[in-house]
Write a structure and sequence with these properties.
By secondary structure, this protein is an alpha+beta fold. It has a six-stranded antiparallel beta sheet, with no helix packed on it. Strands 5-6-7-8 form a four-stranded antiparallel beta sheet, with no helix packed on it. A hairpin with a 4-residue loop joins strand 9 and strand 10. The radius of gyration is 28 Å and the shape is elongated.
Length: 167
């Protein structure tokens, strides 16, 4: 596309003097079709990902020993990995025989939560999320789901066992 002699050059052409060989071949209607098609493909992809996450099996873990009960004082937390070595978890001894364990990943964006004894809660420093110490329920912040709970029990041999994840 060449400018006719004597015709003023449009302002946009002066600022963007680049020309592609096929720029006259794509109409606004075709461009809109491409946009709608692209948005449809992204929406279908999101639906596919959502379906996959609901249908996939999640490793709930096999029962295994975590730590000796005597090694965890009352009011203290103990870090461990469960159900796999890539999954951080934390055990909290609330009383002489009362134990709770949770995934250490915040349900908002997966940051690590830690126990704040002075406030009796789990705290996520990334976005100031807080969870109840004994249930993992959301107290405040952006998380909308409770922490992933892990069933634990103290056995007669003095060991604390993780029995499985509960989501």
């Amino acid at each position: 596309m060449t400018e006719q002699p004597g015709t003023p050059v449009p302002l946009w052409r002066r600022d963007f003097p680049y020309q592609a060989g096929a720029e006259d071949e794509v109409t606004r209607r075709e461009f809109t079709r491409y946009l709608v098609l692209g948005a449809g493909v992204m929406a279908a992809g999101n639906l596919g990902i959502a379906a996959w996450t609901q249908l996939r099996s999640i490793n709930q873990g096999e029962p295994r020993a975590i730590v000796a009960l005597a090694d965890v004082p009352v009011g203290a937390a103990y870090l461990f990995r469960y159900p796999t070595d890539d999954d951080p978890a934390v055990l909290l001894r609330l009383g002489k025989s009362q134990l709770v364990a949770f995934s250490q990943k915040c349900t908002h964006l997966g940051c690590v939560v830690y126990y704040e004894a002075e406030h009796d809660r789990w705290h996520c420093p990334c976005h100031e999320g807080n969870f109840e110490a004994d249930t993992g329920q959301v107290l405040s912040g952006p998380p909308t789901r409770p922490l992933g709970r892990i069933d634990v029990e103290a056995r007669d041999d003095g060991q604390v066992w993780a029995l499985g994840r509960v989501d």
